[in-house]
Each structure stands twice: as structure tokens, then as C-alpha cells.
Design goal:
Length: about 400
């Protein structure tokens, strides 16, 4: 029985959603039942409900006004919670916090009893995303928000707040909405979850943090490093222990084949260097040297601290909007985007900007886009000319 169950669960027909394949290499419209399924799995993470199926049976779901009305309905249904948990978790790569285990002796605040604080930390960006969606706020709040969600434990141990009330027991996580007074704390980039999961056991990892920002915020992940590049020692000795992390990494990236990527991602990582390995603020390293978070974004926006770094990103908010929309479109289609998707992505972004960057507007434009409403046959598209069936045609002289 176990062998049979294992075989069924491992089957591609269990792991993947199947649609009827297109007959040609060019895109063709999906039918209403396929649209109902694609829409439901995108926003609800489940099969279509009766309303979607009835509209599909009547071949009305693909009508733009009807489709838009159904998106509005689905965005108010409690099943939307699945999207609020699944998409931001994948977009922000939050599964990485599970493997974050900073040195227990150096960072005892991260641990209480036998439990870690990862669940408290993980909920902060998830609840921020959910609020932006439910309240139909601007997606720019994901970069620089004036509110967040925190437990009393986070308020006291991470953000230095006093009089936060009784701390909840380890197995209970009570989060409350709080105003953000200091802009260095708002948004998803600088919250404790992201900082913790992109750090090492002993110290921060600016390269890892920079690569995360490049991939997640700007949808431009760097190439993997060469296989023969040695890792940076987490416990420097001798004269190297007197250097700042920026100075140590400057020595580390002298190789010509490393310089290009480092030039792109290092400013991102050092911009958040004031946050220690578990995401708490610091002005100096343990050796007494000042943290230097200065840099330049895209070779044109200088910044000297993390707030100015956020300001620099806001000057490039259209670039962030395109990156974010690309992540969401890829999630909705359950595939990587290709060059053929670029025109549709440009239209999604343009309409979202025109609607003041509102989250629900972005989702509406995505659902009404050509990639969401069409399908192709990858087998035909990838086949060589000798394997394709081309209709014959006749011409007259």
C-alpha cells in the first residue's frame, strides 16, 4: 500500500497541472474550463468553485467584464488566505529562514527555551503583504511601509521597545499591527526575517543579502559564483580581524571573474550592513569599527545609509514594479517567463502604474493579460523544423 501511494504522489500527473496542449507552436486561447482552473489555482490554491464552473459551462467566464467581476469576488473570499501565504513565501524565499541557526551563545535572543524565533519573524513580511493586498494599498509599501506586524517578543528583543506587555509563551504567536516611526524598519527588505535568513552563524553575509535583493526586489539574480572561489572565513584572525567586513570582502573579490557580479550586488548587501546576523540594528562591529552602508544604486543613485537606499529604490519604483509583476506572473502561470511574455508584462506594469501601483489593479491586469489567457505547446515550440508539421499552401502565379 505504501509503495502504491508513493508512486501516485511521485507521478507527474499528481505533481503538475495538466491542460490540453495547444495544436500549434503559436499561442492560442485557453477554454473557459481551463481559465477557471488557472484562475482558481492562482488565487485560491485549489480547484474552481461552483460559480466558476457554471460560468465556464456557459462560456461566459472569458468575457472581460465577467472575468474581472470574478477576480473581485475571489479577492474577497477567505480562500485568498492561501495566496497570501504561498506567493509571498515563494517570492521572498522565506523557506530559507528554517535553516537559519545563528550561534546560540552569541545570539541567545534568537532562541527561547528549545524554540527559535523564526515563526515570529516569518509572520511579519507575510502579514505586511496580506495587508497591502486586502486593503488594496500600493505595492510600494512593500519597500517602505509606515506600519508592520510584530509580537511583543520581537518588539522587546529586536526593536528595543519597552512596556510591550507580557511576552507570549513559545508556542503562541500573537502579532499586532504597529506604526513604523523609523523608516529603516519599514517594508520587507529590512525586517528581521530577511536579515536573519541571509546571514551566517557568526556574522552577516553582504554578498548573500545583496544577491537576495537583486533576485527578489529587482528580479535580476546574479550568476552563480565560480566553483573554486573559497568562502570568507567567519572568524578572521590576526590583522584581518581588525578590518571591517567591507575591507575583507574587497580583498576577497580581486579576481577579475568575480568583479562584475560583486560590483552589482555588493552595494545592495552593504546597504543593510547595519543589521546584525539576526536583524538587530548596530552602528559598529564588535572590533569597534564603524559600519559603512554607503554605496550607489544602478550607478546613479548615491546613498549613505539604509533610509537613503530605500529612497534610491523608490526613485526606481517602476523597475521594482516590473520585477514584482514578473514574479507574480510567473507564479500565476507556474512557469518561468520568456522573452515572448515581455510585451504583456510591459502592459501590466503600465496599467498598474496608471492605477497608482495598487496591488489589486496589478492582479486584474495580470489575469486579463495574453499569457494568462493563452497556452502554447512547448513540445512543438522546442522541436526542430524537421519535427514540426507545417500546413502546406498553394499560390498562383
Amino acid at each position: 500500500m505504501k509503495a502504491a501511494a508513493s508512486a501516485a504522489i511521485a507521478s507527474p500527473r499528481f505533481l503538475y497541472l495538466y491542460e490540453t496542449a495547444a495544436e500549434n507552436a503559436t499561442a492560442e486561447p485557453i477554454d473557459d474550463y481551463e481559465l477557471a482552473s488557472r484562475l482558481s489555482f492562482f488565487l485560491w490554491g485549489s480547484i474552481p468553485d461552483q460559480t466558476l464552473l457554471e460560468l465556464a459551462a456557459e462560456k461566459k467566464l472569458s468575457e472581460p467584464e465577467v472575468l474581472s467581476a470574478q477576480v473581485d469576488r475571489m479577492l474577497t473570499d477567505e480562500k485568498l488566505k492561501r495566496f497570501c501565504d504561498s506567493f509571498p513565501s515563494q517570492w521572498l524565499q522565506l523557506e530559507r529562514i528554517i535553516s537559519a541557526v545563528p550561534n546560540r551563545d552569541k545570539f541567545p535572543e534568537y532562541y527561547f527555551s528549545k524554540y527559535r524565533s523564526s515563526m515570529h519573524l516569518m509572520l511579519e513580511p507575510l502579514l505586511l503583504f496580506e495587508t497591502v493586498l486586502i486593503e488594496d494599498r500600493s505595492i510600494i509599501d512593500l519597500i517602505d511601509s509606515d506600519f508592520s506586524y510584530r509580537s511583543a517578543r520581537m518588539e522587546q528583543l529586536w526593536y528595543g521597545k519597552k512596556n510591550v506587555g507580557k511576552l507570549s509563551p513559545p508556542t503562541v504567536v500573537t502579532m499586532r499591527r504597529v506604526p513604523i516611526i523609523n523608516r529603516r524598519e519599514g517594508g520587507v527588505i529590512t525586517n528581521a526575517a530577511i536579515m536573519s535568513m541571509n546571514a551566517g552563524l557568526e556574522e552577516t553575509k553582504p554578498i548573500t543579502r545583496g544577491a537576495w535583493i537583486a533576485a527578489v526586489i529587482f528580479n535580476d539574480p546574479p550568476e552563480p559564483p565560480p566553483a573554486d572561489v573559497p568562502p570568507l572565513e567567519e572568524k578572521p584572525k590576526g590583522e584581518e580581524a581588525k578590518l571591517t567586513l567591507r575591507e575583507r570582502l574587497a580583498l576577497h573579490r580581486e579576481r577579475a571573474d568575480c568583479a562584475g557580479c560583486h560590483e552589482k550586488i555588493d552595494p545592495f548587501g552593504f546597504a543593510v550592513e547595519n543589521f546584525d546576523p539576526i536583524g538587530r540594528w548596530r552602528d559598529k562591529y564588535k572590533n569597534g569599527r564603524e559600519v559603512d552602508p554607503s554605496g550607489m544604486l544602478f550607478r546613479k543613485h548615491k546613498f549613505t545609509n539604509v533610509i537613503e537606499f530605500k529612497d534610491a529604490i523608490l526613485k526606481e519604483k517602476d523597475r521594482f514594479t516590473r520585477a514584482f509583476a514578473g514574479h507574480m506572473l510567473s507564479f500565476a502561470l507556474a512557469r518561468e517567463l520568456t522573452a515572448a511574455d515581455s510585451p504583456a508584462l510591459d502592459r501590466i506594469v503600465s496599467e498598474t502604474i496608471a492605477e497608482e501601483y495598487k496591488m489589486k489593479s496589478l492582479i486584474h491586469q495580470l489575469v486579463l493579460s495574453e499569457p494568462f489567457l493563452t497556452k502554447t505547446n512547448p513540445g512543438i515550440a522546442d522541436a526542430g523544423p524537421e519535427n514540426r508539421t507545417t500546413p502546406t499552401s498553394t499560390t498562383s502565379d
